[in-house]
């Protein structure tokens, strides 16, 4: 869902996009409807001829920016398949949340409190510049923040200032106002944003839709 939402927006903004999947041929043949849009991947893919689907080891080759939009419990394994050497020196925007659905709804966090998925990715891929962002909102709001009226926030966490700058510039191109982009500090601050997920999920159930976001109101 996140990949299919962000990819066309990136194309619209003039970027070249390739998407990785475990088995491109199997994925291209998926006819089950997407939970959010009702459109199958097979149909969506035909409608987006400018987006190329490739295997995981191929996805980061030659990329200026890699976006991780995989299930949190599979993220480390997926990135291993993408390849340490292919990710070395690159900026990785990590949108994944460590949600464990194995015991049903609501999911639990597979890592929390003293660690986070963002930190685990950074620790396992020390030559990659990991930036955690956009994980605290619904995919459509990530790329069109104006869908939620007024000011509301997106958080950025990471150890590498230049990588955070690249991601911040991307966020601005999506429509995020600079004042609403909050740099939380190093990658350990991803603990905080990943641990927002339980309240985010509760709000989804209570409000009955996903078109909301967090807003940090500051004293003037
Ligand atoms: N949906 C949202 O609005 C939203 C918002 C904020 C954050 N997030 C986070 O973003 C991530 C993606 O969410 P999504 O809703 O886009 O999920 P999704 O549609 O279920 O996509 C998950 C992706 O993870 C891969 N995957 C799942 N299990 C795997 C496994 N065992 N091994 C290897 N790859 C596996 C799948 O790859 P294949 O293509 O190979 O099947 C799929 O492309 C999640 O971590 C989620 O918490 C989502």
Features:
single chain, about 220 residues, alpha/beta, five-stranded mixed sheet, two-stranded parallel ribbon, 9 strands, globular, binds NADP nicotinamide-adenine-dinucleotide phosphate
Molecular structure report:
The chain is α/β, with parallel strands linked by helices and 220 residues long. Helices cover 37% and strands 15% of the residues. It has helices at residues 2-12, 24-28, 41-47, 56-59, 75-82, 84-87, 117-124, 139-143, 161-174, 190-194, 197-207; strands at 18-20, 52-54, 65-68, 91-94, 99-100, 108-109, 129-133, 154-158, 181-185. Helix 9 links the parallel strand 8 (154-158) and strand 9 (181-185). The longest helix is centred in the C-terminal third of the chain and has 14 residues, at 161-174. The radius of gyration is 17 Å and the shape is globular. It starts with a helix and ends in a 13-residue tail after the last helix. The mean pLDDT is 97. Residues 1-3, 21-22, 27, 69-72, 74, 77-78, 95-97, 99, 135, 138-139 line the site of NADP nicotinamide-adenine-dinucleotide phosphate.
């Amino acid at each position: 869902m996140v990949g299919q939402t962000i990819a066309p927006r990136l194309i619209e903004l003039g970027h070249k996009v390739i998407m990785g999947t475990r088995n491109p041929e199997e994925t291209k043949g998926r006819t089950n409807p997407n939970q959010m849009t009702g459109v199958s991947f097979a149909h969506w893919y035909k409608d987006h001829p400018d987006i190329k689907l490739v295997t995981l080891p191929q996805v980061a080759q030659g990329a200026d920016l890699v976006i991780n939009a995989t299930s949190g419990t599979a993220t480390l394994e997926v990135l291993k398949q993408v390849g340490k050497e292919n990710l070395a020196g690159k900026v990785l925007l990590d949108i994944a949340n460590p949600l464990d659905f194995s015991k049903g709804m609501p999911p639990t966090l597979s890592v929390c409190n003293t660690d986070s998925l963002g930190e685990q990715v950074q620790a396992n891929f020390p030559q990659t510049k990991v930036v955690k962002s956009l994980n605290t909102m619904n995919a459509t709001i990530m790329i069109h923040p104006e869908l939620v009226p007024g000011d509301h926030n997106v958080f950025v966490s990471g150890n590498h200032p230049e990588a955070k700058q690249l991601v911040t510039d991307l966020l601005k191109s999506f429509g995020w106002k600079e004042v609403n982009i909050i740099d939380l500090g190093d990658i350990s601050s991803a603990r905080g944003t990943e641990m927002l997920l339980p309240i985010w999920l509760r709000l989804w159930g209570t409000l009955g839709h996903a078109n909301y976001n967090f807003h940090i109101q500051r004293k003037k």
